[in-house]
């Protein structure tokens, strides 16, 4: 049983555990400490949603961030769209955690009337590219090192 809840400041260390787990297996290059988790996901000024997936013991298995794209955002995402990021512990991969998180994130995005959501995924991250395709995202653009996938929410 997976429980999805909104991340709070007290969850920064738990989110850090996910990020550091990804770093250990070579699936993440950016920082993964609790301070980074707090600043970049939980308390980020552009945050719309940050959800965590917990098991029955309360261990965090993954999280998903949704931010609003503002002018000059680091990803080059179109202003007004959502920017999504999904992170799942390597040992929890394949258990439906990403799908469960996305159900709730998509509800939040629709409630906020976002026109679209973009995920910018490393071109070598076949698992991430596959995940977003499975969630209905389509290839939208490419950078030298990444693929931008979008999900249009409104017409």
What does this molecule look like?
About 30% of the residues lie in helices and about 30% in strands. The protein has about 160 residues and is of the alpha+beta class. A seven-stranded mixed beta sheet has the order 1-2-3-4-5-7-6, with helices on both faces.
Summarize the structure.
By secondary structure, the protein is an alpha+beta fold. It has helices at residues 12-24, 34-42, 97-111, 126-134; strands at residues 3-6, 47-54, 60-68, 82-88, 116-122, 138-142, 146-152.
Write the layout of secondary structure elements.
Layout: E1 3-6, H1 12-24, H2 34-42, E2 47-54, E3 60-68, E4 82-88, H3 97-111, E5 116-122, H4 126-134, E6 138-142, E7 146-152
Parallel strand pairs: 4-5
Antiparallel strand pairs: 1-2, 2-3, 3-4, 5-7, 6-7
Helices and strands, in N-to-C order? EHHEEEHEHEE
Q: Using the alpha-carbon principal axes, give the shape.
A: globular
* End-to-end distance: 35 Å
Low-confidence stretches: none
Biggest sheet statistics: 7 strands, mixed
Largest sheet strand order: 1-2-3-4-5-7-6
Structural class, by secondary structure, is: alpha+beta
Strand content: 25-35%
Mean pLDDT: 94
| Annotation, overall tally of beta strands | 7
Please tally the helical runs, counting DSSP H or I stretches of 4 or more residues.
4
What Rg is obtained from the alpha carbons, in whole angstroms? 14 Å
The percent range for helix content is: 25-40%
């Amino acid at each position: 049983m997976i429980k999805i809840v909104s991340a709070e400041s007290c969850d920064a260390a738990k989110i850090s555990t996910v990020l550091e787990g990804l770093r250990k297996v070579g699936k993440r290059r950016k920082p993964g400490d609790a301070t980074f988790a707090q600043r970049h996901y939980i308390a980020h000024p552009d945050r719309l949603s940050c959800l965590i997936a917990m098991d029955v013991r309360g261990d965090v298995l993954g999280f998903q961030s949704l931010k609003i794209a503002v002018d000059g955002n680091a990803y080059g995402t179109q202003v007004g769209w959502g920017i999504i990021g999904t992170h799942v512990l390597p040992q929890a991969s394949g258990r439906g955690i990403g799908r469960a998180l996305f159900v709730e994130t998509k509800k939040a995005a629709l409630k906020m009337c976002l026109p679209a959501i973009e995920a910018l995924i490393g071109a070598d991250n076949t698992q991430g590219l596959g995940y977003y395709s499975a969630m209905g995202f389509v290839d939208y653009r490419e950078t030298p090192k990444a693929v931008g996938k979008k999900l249009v929410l409104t017409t």
